[in-house]
Specification:
alpha/beta, Rossmann fold, two-stranded antiparallel sheet, 28% helix, globular, binds 1-O-pyrophosphono-5-O-phosphono-alpha-D-ribofuranose, binds adenine, transferase, PRTase-like
Length: 202
């Protein structure tokens, strides 16, 4: 069942309000109140994954945006960035870089800690995964406070990468700085999200 508070198609994030695929993507997001903590409205993308056509629409929209842009690497954030990132990377001919939670990667790593809507966490990336000057896109399912994306951008920039954009299915207004600024930019990098939750009372 998909709750009617599901995010709306983004109006101004560059993907075009009229794209008919966005309604199906929006309809396939389930909002679960009070998960994993009281007060959190959890946006669950798993119903979308059960609809292959809708899942493909979401991946295709990212691929259409990033194909031909000289993107060398798609960096996916554990865990839900691992669902969308590899498909996008393969389709645009880029490598996939997993940005993992602590102590999962066996080699030398860069580490960045960050604050979450419901806790704190850390991301790690293998040293040598990306070369200085390579163009990268960061992929995740959702941006809320932007803390996770900020940590991902910091990791890539520490390795000398050129982070072109961050790509998410859902943008939630959990902003710590003025709304307009933060929705479109995270550490100076643009955020492209297919859906947004503006005006829904979050
Ligand atoms: O914009 P932010 O406030 O940083 O929140 C967004 C992050 O939160 C969720 O992951 P979570 O940390 O819950 O990890 P999980 O995917 O491993 O459950 C989501 O998949 C993003 O990575
Ligand atoms: N409200 C939310 N729903 C799903 N994932 C999240 N990550 C951070 N906030 C979230």
């Amino acid at each position: 069942m998909v709750a009617d508070e599901a995010p709306e198609a983004a109006k101004e994030t560059g993907c075009g309000a009229a794209d008919p695929r966005l309604q199906g993507i929006s309809d396939a997001i389930r909002v679960v109140p009070h998960f994993p903590k009281p007060g959190i409205m959890f946006n669950d993308i798993t119903p979308l994954l059960l609809r292959p056509g809708v899942f493909k629409d979401a991946v295709d929209m990212f691929v259409e945006r990033y194909r031909g842009m000289g993107i060398a690497a798609v960096a996916g954030i554990e865990a839900r960035g691992f669902i969308f990132g590899p498909a996008i990377a393969l389709a645009i001919g880029a490598k996939f870089i997993p940005l993992r939670k602590p102590k999962k990667l066996p080699g030398d790593v860069f580490s960045e800690s960050y604050a979450l809507e419901y806790g704190t966490d850390c991301l790690e990336m293998h040293v040598g995964a990306i070369e200085p000057g390579e163009r990268a896109v960061v992929v995740d399912d959702l941006v809320a406070t932007g803390g996770t994306l900020s940590a991902a951008i910091k990791l890539l920039e520490r390795a000398g990468a050129d982070v072109v954009e961050c790509a998410c299915v859902i943008g939630l207004p959990k902003f710590k700085v003025p709304l307009f600024f933060f929705f479109f930019f995270c550490r100076g990098q643009p955020i492209y999200s297919l859906l947004s939750q503006f005006g829904k009372g979050y």
